[in-house]
Amino acid sequence: AVAAAMRLGAVLGALRPALPLLLGLSLGCSLSLLRASWSHGAAEERCLAPGPPAPPARGVPPEAAEGRPGPGHEDFRPRIVPYYRDPNKPYKKVLRTRYIQTELGFHERLFVAVLTSKATLNTLAVAVNKTVAHHFPRLLYFTGLRSAKVPHGMVLVAHGDERPIWLMYETMNYIHQHFGSDYDWFYIMQDDTYAQAEQVKALVTHLSINQDVYLGRAEEFIGGDEQARYCHGGFGYLLSRSLLLKLHPHLDSCRNEILSVRPDEWLGRCIIDFLGITCVSQLQGQHYHTYELAKNTEPEKEEEEDFQAALAVHPVSDMTLMYRLHKQFSRIQLDRVYQEIQDLQMQIRNLTALTPAGEAGVTWPVGINAPFLPKSRFEVISWDYFTEQHLFSCPDGSPKCELSGASKADVSEIIESAVEQLNRLYQPLLRFSKRQLLNGYRRFDPTRGMEYTLDLLLEAATQKGHSHVLAKRVSLVRPLSKVEIIPMPYVTEATRVQLVLPLTVQDLDFVANFLDMFAMNTLDTHDNALLTLLFIYHPYDAQRVGQVDVFAGVKAMVGELEKRYAEVKIPWISVKTEVPSQVKLMDIVSKKHPVDTLFFLASVWTEINMEFLNRCRMNTISNWQVFFPVHFQEFNPALVYRGEQTASSNTDFLRDGHFDRHSFAEACFYNSDYMTARTKLAADILDRDEVLESMEVFDVFLHYSGLHLFRAVEPGLVQKYTLRSCNPRLSEELYHRCVLSNLEGLASRSHLAMALFEQEQANST
Fold this sequence. Notes:
By secondary structure, the chain is an alpha/beta fold.
């Protein structure tokens, strides 16, 4: 009994700290059960209580008051739509739009129309195009009659009649027909109007697209209704999409019934008579500010608030005045931006002082992201050393190269900016002038921009004329600016790709694998791709082709493929040459295909797959861009694995290899773009065909096309390791690149070091 009592006391002693917790849990559970039973009983009594139901709140439908969705709310009730496909009907692939905004019916923001004439097309219209056209997303010029030559970079629509009312009528019809379903806002202006493009774009972002908007400088009709107003065409006016859609059915009636001399009055009367909407200068809290220029106005001397706040200025009499206005408004906008930056920096300083980090938390420059902090030594961003003449981190890997081009302009600009900032800080006490750049360092930080550290040898002059030479270190940052989406032409994945495969005698061992991959990834999947083989015969082999054809085995494999796939034809072209110049071979292929052919120039080691072919289609744009992928080259397995079994798991994808930046064998481009660049090359080299032996297709597009050259790593192009034969008959640069590609494709530095270590160990034993 004593032992049992002692054991019970020990258990109670151990449970004593947990007793409050257990009591609290028990009490809480009990209260919760009691509260649930009370609530349940009260709800039942309320639901079963007799008497008439309480009336719903004012403006609330009875269904909503009872908790049921009303007749107009069926679309908001969730429901499951079961998928069903009729087994008797053949399966058909659903074609969807590539961009989600097309499928959802999103519209572009702003369309701009400029009314011009044959007399002012080459003067005022050109000035408009050079000043504000690049700020608007879409801008077209409308005229009655066009001149023989349209200025470069302008999209012109000619209606064939110079009558002002007819021009306005045809312009509104054209805008509705071609752009009425694509844009939310339509801005109409004349070529003698200067519009602040950024202010106009900001205006439409603050207006609701659900209203019928007729916004501009409101003017009274001569002898008409005092309440009605039309928008003056000289200062531009803004129309909403909803108003344009409602106005279009009445344009023919307006043309026949309304008489007017001015096209803006005619349009205003048409909108008022048939839609009952008058022009306003203020809407939804937004003001349409305008400024009327007087004769002999000096834009540089205009300091009025109305001028600085104006969205549109009229009339602009000549091109020079247009450029002067653009310069003045650009300066005003720049001053506003600088002032906003200073205000934001002051607010950041004030707020940062209240944070736990205090003033130490303020980054430099204020408002720019802090420098990137590496988590390991592999993430350290290295600095590039430079002087005013040389760069000591060269793209080609050489230790020293001459500073030229954009790099030289960058260094000159940053030095001038450094001296200017020093003078701004120390004037009028000191005046600095640069003597020499002692040391320069720069690096690109992806989180903030380009950073510079300069050691400058300066001459400092005082107000009394004394001077002194001193060295000073300054740090500068060129921050990343606003990221913009570059507009690109629309492309589709349905384009047919024409593969071109040049073959030499040295490539025969790899043709079978190429054809197998081509059949598996394109023919079996019915991809829209064709193949053309280019047999390159050495002159000695060409003479013996009647007795021994070195490509007979390849032709037999092609025949087997054509038998297996009856609808497929794989043509081949035979060429005899000692030096297989890529440009000369492409000249032969180009002449045998239409101009709209999309070529993919492949190599025999390339493993074709659908993923890459789609990227080839998307990254190649006719008359805009060509694509040169950088394939992934696997290392030599004898050096990487050294007799061990090769890893085959998915985690090792793109692991034991590198992207071969020395190879330009693969390329995607349109035949029309190649023919255009090739024509310019032929005019440059005349009859010196030997120059072609030192060039590749990449060089042709780089120097003679003017197109965008998109060169990027391509994980979809993986090539097995092979030691490629480098033709010494090619140019020195091409031969050097081939040798470098072979050397860098052997193995990584760690693998090579391990191989050397094992070899030294074996030799020492």
